[in-house]
Amino acid sequence: MIDHRATVKRILFSALFFLLLSVGNKLSAQDGKAIFQNNCASCHSVFKDLTGPALGGVTSRGPWTDHKKLYEWVHNPSKFMASDPYTAGLKQKFGGVVMTSFDALSEKEIDAVIDYVEKTFKAGPPTSGPQGTPGAGGAQVIDEKDNSILYGVLTLILAVVALIMLQVNSNLKKLSDDKDGLPSYEPIPFYRNKSYITILVLVLFVIGGFYIVKGAIGLGRSQNYQPEQPIFYSHKVHAGVNQINCLYCHGGAMEGKHANIPSVNICMNCHMTISEYSGTAGKLFREDGTEVNGTDEIKKIYAAAGWDPAKKAYKENAGHEIAWTKIHNLPDHVFFSHAQHVNAGKVQCQTCHGEITKMDEVKQFADLSMGWCINCHRTTKVNFGGKSGEEGNKFYSIYEKFHDDLKTHKKVNEFGDTITVAAVRDSITVADIGGLECQKCHY
Amino acid sequence: MANKKYWQSFGELNNSEAYEKSISNEFKEDLPFESADKKGLDVSPASRRDFLKYLGFSTAAAIVAASCETKVRKAIPYVNKPQDMVPGVADYYATTYVSGGEAIPVVAKVRDGRPIKLEGNTLSTFTKGGSSARMQASVLDLYDTARLKGPYANNSATAIDVVDRDIKGALAGLGGGQLVLLTSTITSPSAKQVIAEFLAKYPNSKHVQYDAISYTGILLANEATFGKRAIPTYNFGNAQTIVSLGADFLCTWLSPVEFQHGYSKNRKVHEKNVEMSKHFQFESMMSTTGASADERFVHRPSEAGIVAAALLSAVNGQGATGVTGKLKEGIEKAAKELVANKGKGLVVSGSNNTQVQIIVNAINEAIGAYGSTISWGNPILMHQGIDSEMVSLVQDMEAGRVGALLIYGANPSYEYFDAERFNKGLKSVKLSVSFNDRKDETTELCKYVVPAPHFLESWGDAEPKAGIISLIQPTINPLFNTRPFEESLLKWSGNATAWDVYLKNYWIAKLGSVGTFDKALQDGVIETQAMVEAATFNAAPVAQAIAAANAMKKGGEFEVVVYQKVGVGSGKQANNPWLLELPDPITRVSWDNYAVISPVVAKKFGIDLNDRGSADKYEVNTEKPVIKVKVRGKEVELPIIVIPGTQENTIAIAVGYGRSKGVGRSVGAADGGTLGKNAYPFLSFNGSTIEWNGQAEMEKTDKLYKIAQGQTHNSYEGREGVIREVTFEEYKKEPNVILHERAKELEHYGGIEGFAKEGTIYPDYPGENKPGIKWGMSIDLNSCFGCGACVVACHIENNVPIVGKHEVARYHDMHWLRIDRYFSGNPNDAESIQTVFQPMLCQHCDNAPCENVCPVAATHHSQEGINMMAYNRCIGTRYCANNCPYKVRRFNWADYTGADSFPNNQQPLVDEGNLDDVILMMNDDLTRMVLNPDVTVRSRGVMEKCSFCVQRTQAGKLEAKKQNRPLSNDDVKTACQQACSADAIVFGNANDSQSLVSQVRKQYNSRLYHSLEETHTMPNVNYLAKVRNTAEISNEGVLGTIVGGSHAEEAPAEAAAAEHKG
């Protein structure tokens, strides 16, 4: 996990920085991609029609050959449509839904999106299955080659050899004693030898104890928990292939404690127009191997929302809640806030939830143990903001003094004297500003 | 002043043997290890082998239990989520706390659809964001298990339309009978319109307003002298001299939240503002306001009129007539100050007697108070009841002239002084309807009950002062099948409009547009400055009033004075465990009422405080002797509490106790009786107003009654420096007197500056702004009046459990924040008693004694200066509490919260009588909705204490991070700080020189000190020393001659001499 931190960080900066803040002057296709994913991807794809039309080749059709018209459209679609038959036609084609206005996007940003879309379009559709949010720790799941069996077998062989040698040794000793005429005891078979029995008991105790303790610690933890959900919702299809931003549905992650499972009306934003699964991510299978009919699953959403797909209208008082099975459960005495991690800490969702973009039904990726939390707090560097307003959270400006002291290898001791110390590290971690204190999470 | 001796109990004052013994143990009992035969472990038949068996079995059982399948949890999102609602993030709605006529603008914190905390609305110029204990606690009333779940007819649950049909029919067939709507004061302008429409529909009908706590005397006096039946605004903030004749204006009288704020303005002394108001109090019992007074004089309860008359004559330059001794001196002294500060004085009286209030008006007129400290702009509307209307209503009822009685907000069967006659009259009323929310004493006797919703479920408005409107909006869907009282009236008057629509139409019409109404709803308040009408004083009734006042004095040995406790008040929120467990600021007793008597009278009942044996018998035992008090033929038996400063002929008894079972589960005693006794029958009607005192007889009984009284168990082992106090005289001469005192004490250890540095391992950064966060709190003893709003707020915010009377009596109370009360002076001399209130909470010591002794590191220090407590690490050794010099750590002796893994382990304890039923009430699924989801509920065997509201500091920091900015002053406020109307508590980041706490520490540096500073605990809480506006500080802190005891030699000689005189 540690190895990928740098990659994760980079992505974080490009993605969330743009989502939250204004942009600098230089915008590349790379930035365009981030803007696209944050603003457009929930309705548009480059290659196929979703809620809105496929964007690939957009600049070569309709009024969009003129970039200025595109800006007008993005900033205020309804206004633009009033005088433009092409877009009015599009509205008809896409179920009477008009695009949301994005008046906060600058012309440069729109250019960057177009740049990204065109470049991606030219490169052709992805061939090698679903694409995850890039760099999201793909290597994390690579198993290290497990040598423990080899070691175990080796140990066993060596132990048997040692046992045989000991037996041989004692036999030889007995022979030599006999030869020398020394009195010798009747040899005790090894299974009645008290030393052996003692050693064996000790070894069994240690091994048994190890597994009991390990098992006891694991009680109440549920790593890899993957319950069957009332609706076969595939994150692979949504977040993976269609690249919908996590925060589009789990917006609570920016606001408060809970990331929140989206309400049915959020599903309906897109599924008003997408009524069948067209197999974009291939056939869908449950864990037990049975095939899932994606279109039937979408119908379950309609039932929950009280939507009549034929009439394209909501039925009166027909909706009902969907009781999802909660996967990530923390004990009651733990306070965890998504906002602190996602919004303030800029931690990528995948860091804790694994490669969501490759999962159909979600399973618990991390064990959510305290040791796991603490390890991350020990290694995560705090994103200090400088007085000059460099990147980083300005809240941490109160720690600037510590930061400066680190740079200059200075330290203030308990007598108020500034002393120079050897450089011991290059950054401040969450643990350094109290991230390991009990009452940061337990209160 | 170093000689001043403070004491919390008579035992401490005497250094008695039993007292010394009682304080030598922090915990007075062993852990409840008991074998089945209850003989204790020593004689237990269980052998070591048995122990091992149990151990083995329980380990195996735990493993089996734990390895059962993990529970499957469901997460159910909305179908259509309201846009601005994020589950897990609190929403805030402005609304109004209403109880009887009282109203306080509030902001309700709503978490996932449940209101869980109320704060004062800072947009209100009336309360300025202040709160009271009752307002804070009122959120629990919403989740009260005793609330009626729907309408009742003849004591059986019925459908609302059946009730409507029956009542409409009955109203149509009243014949000649009168229709009377009996309510407590209604300030809501829209509800008044509804009432007017309803009454217009039914001829021969009227509206009677009746207040349990009546201010008829003031209303009638103002009518007599100014021609207006109104209560003016009192601006305590403008007053330089304040004379209170028995008015408890800081805690219970008229509008205490408003008054606390004004009063405290002139009490916050610092070296650049060497000015302070002077407060005289003349009263019979030790009231909470009297405890904060600079000078306090006592008189018999029936002498209230004479004192007022004497003050008037003294103000007029004729000397105090009709009084003698210290009282005369006091009155003349007060008069001198009033005359010297003409136009800056204010006299208030707590009497409900019209004649006394007329004299008070005359005094205020003479000292030029009208127009400066008393204003006729925005008069107080919260108390409009006229006693005589109620008395004549009862007469009408008895005579059978009343055909229908509709009761809302009033509970005359309990609150009315002659409830028997009211009940008798009620029987002859054909149609009786109650809108009250529970089966209280009156509702029980009514034929129909149409319960009204709690204010947090309602639409509405209130006008606590003319022109100052506060709107009420619902914060939760109604929990039960209730209907607003206004809607019922609308329905019965043939208007089909729903109440919320009616209200909206009313205000949109008034404010002009939907937009303004929405804005007003968001702000919660609509304020217009009323024209200050000129009012000329009519002196005609004064002469007659003086004559009447002089005739009021009664003979006889005893007089009773009935009062309100700051928690329970009139008893409108009687089933609120937070209020019942809140200790009275003076007596420190919770859960009961009692007869307060003076130490002089105590002697007559075998309690001689000069005699160690009998003082101990009284004080160390929780069982207090019971007396029989008889007033006008009515008698009650109550335990006694001896309070110094009580006038020697006075017995003081609080109202609000002795309730019927229908009020709720928490008002019943374990033995099946009631907690406390009803004192309302001791009131009397004098022909125009209800009097709160009267002649009494007192009789000894041989009964004893268990009282839950705190504080006597918490001792500072004779250490000084808990309280620091200085006279205003001294302070004026040398503002740095406290600083010098501290400097002298700490001289050996490097002085004030060096003292801190010497003992810390934390780096000391130079400069004003230090890096990082260090939370600090400053508490101004001059602005703390003991009202307890902070204590209740702390309870709510931090899920602090209620433990019940028996546990409090065993000193198992769980208050994270308590208000210690210290007396000084000679108990035998009521006038010499001076009182200091000190909010005491975890001091978050940088050098904390508790942290070092924890064997499992469950408590340690955070970088932000918080002394942290990790509940899940705690194994309950209680070493930390033993080692805490401030005695602020609280141990969960039983499973108060139901947080243990084993279900239902409270019921057996309740059945055995070891716990009170209130524990079960607080663990009801309904009641538990009030819990703060951000704070863990602690289980048995765990230590807990003030956390500096760590959930708030964390949330505040996160908010700043989310907005990408440094922490600001408004981000973090502790619950106690936010609750305080007088801004006595200030909290913030002490490392930031711009934070509120840094500013206050700098500004008030001359009064700053740390409690028990010399123990070198280095607290992050500091206090600002008390400044008393007197010439001398009472230091006669010794009773009798002390034999033995380690502090005898410290007793000042003059104190001992004074004692011999006493």
UniProtKB/TrEMBL annotation, chain A:
It comes from the Bacteria. GO terms for molecular function: electron transfer activity; heme binding; metal ion binding. Pfam families: Cytochrom_C (PF00034). Coiled coil: none annotated. The chain crosses the membrane at residues 149-166, 195-213. PROSITE patterns: CYTC. Residues 27-121 form the Cytochrome c domain. Signal peptide: none annotated. Keywords: Heme, Iron, Membrane, Metal-binding, Transmembrane, Transmembrane helix. InterPro entries: Cyt_c-like_dom, Cyt_c-like_dom_sf, Multihaem_cyt_sf. PANTHER family: CYTOCHROME C7-LIKE DOMAIN-CONTAINING PROTEIN (PTHR39425:SF1), LIPOPROTEIN CYTOCHROME C (PTHR39425). This is Cytochrome C. It comes from Niastella yeongjuensis.
From TrEMBL, chain B:
It holds the Pfam family Fer4_11. NCBIfam families: MoCo_extend_TAT. Residues 775-805, 833-864, 865-894 form the 4Fe-4S ferredoxin-type domain. It comes from the Bacteria. This is [Fe-S]-binding protein. CDD domains: PsrB (cd10551).
